[in-house]
Specification:
The complex is a heterodimer of chains A (317) and B (370). With 317 residues, chain A is an all-alpha fold. Helices cover 74% and strands 0% of the residues of chain A. The longest helix of chain A is centred in the first third of the chain and has 37 residues, at 23-59. The two termini of chain B are 30 Å apart. In chain B, 53% of the residues are buried. The chains are: A mainly alpha (317), B alpha+beta (370). Chain A: This is ABC transporter permease.
Chain lengths: 317, 370
């Protein structure tokens, strides 16, 4: 293959006597053009994704400390970082919290998002206005939502407890201050944040489903539930996969929201892989250990990315 | 580079730098980044060989940078420590080398709402027992007797140290009876209802908000809050030393504050100039100006004496500073790991676990190097 390219290249530089299209030449030109279009993307990927990724994997096998920044030396220490991270009780806890947090958030966001999408798929007055209003949580920066929610959920002076109290309910719920409640509260806030994204994408998917199908189902006398199960869900499946996979990827690496709400506390009750890698790297400045946790996160995401690509491929066939 | 991201601090620093720059015939540029980013930013700059000539580190972070070999010994640059008390020289030193010149230092004290205490007819508590009784007595309706921060960050640990140290406890031995005793005292305050259950989620700034809003009669906090406190004219506050376990015991608080350091840039000439700038900024005159602005205590003895006459209401703070202790004196760069273990421990204990079990786990975690 290489030889043919080289000969073709020499022939391309020497002006040919005849203007007749040379099949080898056009083929070459096409190939060059093809690579020319792909090249910027490849360079970009290698530079901004490949390099950090490789560095991160390498770093997890290195004794990487503040000293490294001066000397540039980070001695390899085998699997020391990995074994110390895996032996840390906190890692197990963080992994579990991450799973619960991700599963809980996705379930809540998706169900409510889907319900709202189906609701807005009908025509009624103010539909557009309401739909835009629901997007608001999405527009607010995560840290801002976090700080506002921290105030809302304050046990003594928070709006939520005060409101519950005036309703005669338990107005003393320790939302963020009890290790048993904190993870749940953080999940609830994240659900609130994630609803708009789920709703918008699912709503878009619903709009794609041909109206005739529903008309036909109505003529056949199908119930609303039956229509939803036999028409809406199957036709919406590709969109559902996209929503869940994208949702998974952004949820599993959660950091900002938790830092703003609880800082991983109380008593590490909301420590996730994201906050742990942050703590290892930027508080304890043990970059090797931080890289290990980061790599675990990457592996988890990669596994799901494979599922996603698989699902897409079968859809394509 | 410093962490003066607040407009007022940024301005004070800019003015001080302008004065020193004029005196020395140099132009000084100020770059401020959030406090939590000073260390990581400085490390990045170190690897790209673009370190600034002077970095102001939080004193608890300085040892990490010094250990990495990134700082120049200030004494070799001609800085004198003659007028600086030994405790504060130690505060700016790592393994016996003086790397950081403090302009001012701070510590924690007991702030109290004078009106509330007068109304209830109680005296300012000086012992733990009195603090517990007074706090309980002052807890009424929505108002708590005391507010402090037990948040999951350095804030909470900073606030725990005066209780730990005054009780004879030590950061190298987290599960000693003295540390357990200090944590049990916090637990008792919480069980009495004198502390809000949200304590575990509060930063020191939150504590100050609660105190200002009248939701707490007393608080443990530092002088950097004074500027905010004084914005509320109707609030009459005073400060006292943090109560001690038993009458007559020493009230040992944590020394806080930032130190000016000269990073190793390799350019001897610039390092020398940087040393002269640090000497000017940390000189007696600039210290006094800075301390009066920021309500913190000057590090220099002569400046501190002058400061006491100018702000007599903060006299208690100056006493507390004189007896205060640096967090990193014993552990150096190892402090951050112990601090994380300790945060987790007191949060577990305040939310139900026994202090002993929580601290034993913390000690294990701190010594395992994780």
């Amino acid at each position: 293959m290489t030889t043919s390219t080289v000969t073709a290249a020499t022939s391309a530089t020497t002006p040919g006597p005849s203007a007749a299209p040379d099949p080898a030449r056009t083929r070459l030109r096409r190939r060059v053009a093809r690579w020319g279009f792909v090249a910027p993307a490849v360079v970009f990927m290698l530079l901004f994704f490949g390099y950090p990724l490789v560095r991160n994997v390498l770093m997890s096998f290195q004794h990487y400390t503040p000293k490294t920044f001066f000397t540039g030396e980070a001695p390899f220490n085998g699997t020391d970082n990995w074994s110390s991270v895996f032996q840390d009780v906190l890692f197990g806890k963080a992994l579990w919290h991450t799973l619960v947090f991700t599963a809980g958030s996705l379930l809540g966001q998706f169900c409510i998002g889907l319900a709202l999408a189906v609701f807005f798929n009908r025509r009624f007055p103010l539909n557009g206005v309401l739909r835009s209003l629901i997007l608001l949580p999405w527009l607010v920066p995560m840290v801002v939502s976090g700080i506002v929610w921290r105030r809302i959920l304050d046990q003594d002076t928070g709006v939520l407890n005060t409101f519950l109290g005036t309703l005669g309910l338990d107005g003393d719920t320790p939302w963020l201050t009890s290790p048993d409640m904190a993870l749940l509260s953080v999940i609830l806030v994240n659900i609130w944040i994630g609803i708009p994204f789920n709703m918008v994408i699912l709503y878009g998917g619903l709009q794609e489903i041909p109206k005739e199908l529903y008309e036909a189902a109505a003529l056949d006398g199908a119930s609303a539930w039956r229509t939803f199960r036999s028409i809406t869900l199957p036709l919406l499946k590709p969109v559902i996969t996209v929503v869940l996979v994208l949702g998974f990827m952004s949820t599993v690496k959660i950091l900002d929201l938790i830092l703003a709400l609880t800082d991983g506390g109380p008593a590490d009750a909301t420590q996730t892989l994201g906050t742990l890698t942050y703590q290892n790297s930027f508080v304890e400045l043990d970059f090797g250990a931080g890289a290990v946790v980061g790599n675990v996160l990457i592996i988890v995401s990669a596994v799901f990315a494979v599922f996603y690509l698989r699902a897409n491929r079968t859809e394509g066939k | 580079m410093n962490s003066s991201t607040d407009e007022t601090y940024h301005r004070w620093d800019a003015e001080a730098m302008a004065r020193c720059g004029k005196q020395l015939g140099v132009t000084i540029e100020q770059q401020s980044v959030p406090a939590a980013q000073v260390m990581t930013k400085a490390l990045r700059m170190a690897s790209s060989k673009s370190l600034p000539d002077i970095v102001q580190f939080d004193a608890s972070e300085m040892p990490t940078f010094a250990e990495a070999g990134g700082l120049v010994d200030l004494r070799t640059l001609g800085l004198s420590t003659d007028d600086v008390p030994e405790g504060i020289v130690d505060f700016g030193s790592y393994k016996g080398t003086y790397y950081g010149a403090a302009r001012s230092v701070n510590t924690l004290a007991l702030f109290y709402n004078k009106d509330i205490l007068d109304e209830a007819g109680v005296r300012v508590p000086t012992t733990w027992e009195e603090l517990r009784r007074t706090a309980k007595q002052l807890t009424q309706g929505k108002r708590y007797g005391l507010a402090l921060s037990a948040g999951g960050a350095e804030d909470g640990v900073f606030q725990f140290t005066p209780f730990m140290w005054s009780n004879g406890g030590d950061e190298t031995d987290l599960d000693s009876p003295q540390v357990v005793g200090a944590l049990d005292f916090w637990k008792a305050l919480l069980q009495d209802g004198s502390l809000s259950k949200s304590t575990v989620n509060w930063t020191q700034a939150d504590v100050n908000d609660q105190f200002m809003a009248g939701n707490a009669a007393m608080m443990i906090n530092g002088p950097w809050q004074v500027e905010t406190l004084n914005t509320k004219k109707s609030l009459h506050w005073e400060i006292a030393r943090i109560p001690v376990p038993e009458a007559g015991a020493d009230s040992v608080g944590p020394l806080g504050g930032a130190v000016l350091t000269v990073p190793r840039t390799g350019d001897a000439e610039r390092e020398k100039t940087a040393g002269r700038i640090v000497a000017c900024l940390a000189g007696e005159k600039e210290q006094l100006t800075y301390a009066l602005n920021s309500w913190m205590v000057p590090a220099n003895e002569k400046a501190a004496a002058e400061w006491r006459t100018q702000v007599p209401e903060l006299d208690a703070l100056a006493d507390q500073v004189a007896a205060a202790r640096s967090r990193t004196a014993k552990l150096g760069a190892g402090w951050s790991g112990v601090s994380l273990a300790l945060q987790s421990a007191f949060q577990s204990a305040l939310t139900g676990q026994s202090s002993e079990a929580a601290l034993q786990r913390a000690q294990r975690r701190a010594t395992s190097g994780n």
